[in-house]
């Protein structure tokens, strides 16, 4: 296409303006009329000048000169250039059909936060190597040892990554994109565009390609390799047009018998107003429903992050594979943390709870395999990673193509029906008990109450030095409360206020019992009041509330124990030595009486006198005597409890012998397995009744009855 530009001037200065797409101006000494043929007259320079006369009204004429230059438009070199080498193969010619070209500049290296210590170590090794080269000294052995240690540290780091660290690698800016993998693993590749409804969404790429001579339909989310590409690709967040384009090409592949390979790498579907108006949810739902009916094999590879339904819309496959550092989630850890803990800073905790990693998905049988990555992530060696993906796809396709159509469809349905524990052919109970949130809270409260009772018994029963286990348990409880309090402050958005108050307190002089200034005291009171207000909301921070109650109870019990010890020490100080000696004699007499000895009347009188003396000492210590107890009854109760325990053990042994004699041990184990699988209650009750009858038949009921009667006596 050619363009024409016009410029005019006069002697009094230049005037520019737009008149029907031309620039014009006035000039003197015009000689003839302007015609189009004159303007298009050839010129060696491509520059045209023409003089003309224009009448303005009836009173005045204006003469002007037109300068025109025609610029030839540059021919677009798409899809093929003019000087295409005729000797190149057809596979190489197909590369001209793709807008995806190699980057002009190599991406800058990006260091993730958890990688910085290793990067610093690598930099120091390089500096030592440089110094050795400059000085001419030979430190190759030492440098080699350092490099070996560095590689071992790198291996240890990437072997024990946390979920949030793996997610950071999955989101790495230099991580290879879907088109990078496709162009590496395919022999031929041509991209297909459009949803046939007016738009081609660049966030999803589709096309036909061959691997080892066999054709496949490729579909995947495409991220950008830099900021400009990410904006153009909408950061791999598809609109409804993208999902409809993917569905159109999947139907095309199903019609022509091409196996489908999909790549997932998206934060999720684009959730703007326009996408919702165009039916984002409906487009995803159509993909989910239709993919289960395709009669060709489908293999999905998660190369980066897979966000919710936006990822699942092209991932209803027979086989799902995930790269080692990829992630698949229903909600991003940041969004989950913002919902549950009111701050995105709790994303690491949310990532652990969500179980988003490839390892967790493989353990839960959601993913069918994990594709290894090189140390440092897929961006460390993209070609090697792509070859691992190619090898995995070929193996999976060999297995799936061996199935007939019905078996293939059944395989795909069963894969998703098995998620969550459902098993084909086993009836589902109409009423099934489920572990709901309220039940979990009640269980937690029950467990904590039992712990409180155990601590209470240990504290009240202990009379010697402090119990080490009890002290450790109390310290552990305090640490848990401190941790939960910190998390609660973060979730409530009070961390900034707390840090500010801590900073102000650190500036104060270290003096005991020094009152705070009025401003600081008001800030502390306001923060505490806001914290208590948010903590008291129904259903909020139940775990922290329970632990606070537990800690309050423990502190009170510890205080009572300390008070009892102080009181005991004061009483021992005030009791005369003579009374203590008499009390010791009485204890010895009591032991003799317990062993069956005769009671001496002199000792009885002595006991009465010691009791009166002890009461007088206690009254002198301002202590009121409420009453006395008989330790013999306590000892009898303890002996009775011990006897009941022994009797229970004997009865349990008799029942165990009866089970062995009846030979129902395997039946009991089988019944337990059926209960675990979720068998019907009627079947379980019937089987249990049959087992009970066999045990009772082999059990000596009279002997058990006699033991029970003896226990009552």
Explain this structure to me?
With about 725 residues, the protein is α/β, with parallel strands linked by helices. The chain is built from 27 helices and 13 strands. The chain has helices spanning about 35-40, 90-95, 115-135, 140-160, 165-170, 180-185, 225-230, 240-255, 275, 280-290, 310, 335-340, 345-355, 360-365, 380-400, 405-415, 435-460, 470-490, 495-505, 520-535, 540-575, 575-595, 600-620, 630-660, 665-675, 680-700, 700-710; strands at about 1-5, 20, 20-25, 45-55, 60-70, 190, 205-210, 215-220, 260-265, 300-305, 320-325, 325-330, 370. Strands 6, 7, 8, 9, 10, 11, 12 and 13 form an 8-stranded mixed beta sheet that branches. It has a 3-stranded antiparallel beta sheet with strand order 1-5-4, with no helix packed on it. A hairpin with a 2-residue loop joins strand 2 (about 20) and strand 3 (about 20-25). Helix 18 (about 470-490) runs antiparallel to helix 21 (about 540-575), helix 19 packs antiparallel against helix 20 (about 520-535) and helix 22 (about 575-595) packs across helix 23 (about 600-620).
């Amino acid at each position: 296409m050619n363009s024409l530009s016009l410029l005019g001037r006069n002697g009094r200065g230049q005037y520019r303006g737009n008149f029907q797409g031309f620039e014009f101006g006035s000039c003197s000494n015009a000689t003839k009329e302007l015609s189009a043929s004159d303007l298009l007259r050839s010129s060696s320079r491509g520059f045209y000048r023409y003089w003309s006369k224009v009448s303005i009204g009836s009173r005045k004429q204006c003469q002007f000169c037109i300068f025109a230059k025609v610029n030839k438009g540059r021919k677009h070199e798409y899809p093929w250039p003019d000087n295409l080498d005729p000797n190149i193969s057809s596979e190489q010619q197909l590369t001209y059909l793709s807008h995806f070209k190699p980057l002009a500049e190599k991406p800058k290296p990006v260091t993730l936060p958890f990688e910085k210590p290793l990067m610093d170590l690598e930099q120091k090794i390089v500096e030592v190597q440089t110094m050795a080269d400059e000085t001419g000294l030979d430190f190759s052995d030492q440098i080699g040892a350092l490099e070996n240690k560095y590689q071992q540290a790198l291996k240890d780091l990437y072997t024990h990554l946390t979920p949030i660290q793996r997610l950071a690698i999955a989101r790495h800016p230099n991580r290879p994109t879907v088109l990078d993998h496709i162009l590496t693993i395919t022999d031929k590749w041509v991209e297909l565009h459009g949803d046939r409804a007016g738009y081609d969404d660049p966030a999803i790429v589709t096309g036909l390609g061959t691997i080892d001579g066999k054709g496949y339909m490729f579909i995947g989310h495409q991220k950008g390799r830099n900021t400009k590409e990410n904006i153009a690709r909408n950061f791999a967040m598809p609109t409804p047009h993208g999902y409809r384009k993917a569905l159109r090409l999947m139907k095309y592949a199903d019609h022509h018998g091409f196996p489908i390979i999909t790549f997932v790498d998206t934060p999720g579907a684009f959730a703007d107003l326009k996408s919702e108006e165009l039916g984002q949810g409906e487009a995803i739902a159509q993909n989910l429903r239709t993919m289960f009916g395709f009669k060709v094999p489908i293999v999905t590879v998660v190369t980066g992050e897979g966000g919710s339904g936006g990822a699942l819309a092209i991932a209803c496959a027979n086989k799902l594979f995930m790269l080692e550092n990829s992630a698949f989630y229903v909600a991003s850890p940041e969004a989950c943390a913002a919902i549950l803990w009111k701050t995105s800073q709790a994303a690491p905790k949310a990532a652990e709870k969500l179980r988003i990693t490839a390892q967790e998905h493989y353990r839960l049988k959601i993913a069918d395999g994990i594709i290894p990555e090189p140390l440092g992530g897929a961006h460390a060696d993209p070609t090697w990673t792509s070859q691992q993906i190619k090898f995995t796809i070929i193996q999976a396709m060999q297995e799936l193509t061996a199935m007939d159509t019905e078996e293939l469809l059944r395989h795909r349905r069963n894969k998703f029906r098995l998620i969550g524990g459902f098993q084909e052919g086993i009836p589902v109970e109409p009423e099934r008990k489920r572990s709901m949130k309220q039940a979990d809270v009640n269980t937690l409260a029950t467990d904590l109450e039992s712990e409180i009772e155990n601590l209470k018994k240990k504290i009240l029963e202990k009379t010697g030095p402090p119990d080490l286990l009890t002290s450790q348990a109390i310290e552990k409880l305090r640490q848990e409360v401190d941790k939960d309090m910190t998390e609660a402050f973060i979730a409530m958005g009070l961390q900034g206020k707390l840090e500010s108050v801590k900073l102000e307190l650190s500036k104060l002089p270290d003096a005991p019992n020094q009152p705070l200034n009025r401003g600081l005291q008001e800030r502390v009171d306001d923060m505490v009041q806001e914290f208590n207000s948010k903590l008291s909301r129904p259903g909020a921070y139940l775990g922290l509330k329970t632990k606070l109650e537990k800690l309050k109870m423990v502190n009170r019990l510890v205080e009572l124990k300390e008070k009892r010890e102080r009181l005991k020490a004061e009483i021992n100080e005030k009791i005369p030595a003579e009374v203590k000696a008499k009390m010791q004699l009485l204890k010895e007499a009591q032991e003799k009486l317990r062993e069956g000895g005769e009671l001496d009347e002199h000792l009885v009188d002595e006991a009465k006198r010691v009791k009166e003396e002890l009461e007088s000492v206690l009254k002198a210590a301002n202590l009121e005597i409420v009453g006395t107890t008989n330790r013999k009854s306590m000892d009898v109760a303890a002996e009775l409890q011990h006897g009941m325990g022994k009797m229970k053990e004997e009865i349990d042994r008799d029942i165990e012998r009866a089970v062995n004699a009846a030979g129902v041990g395997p039946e009991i184990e089988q019944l337990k397995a059926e209960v675990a699988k979720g068998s019907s209650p009627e079947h379980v009750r019937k089987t249990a009744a049959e087992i009970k009858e066999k045990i009772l038949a082999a059990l000596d009921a009279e002997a058990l009855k006699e033991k029970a009667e003896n226990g009552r006596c």
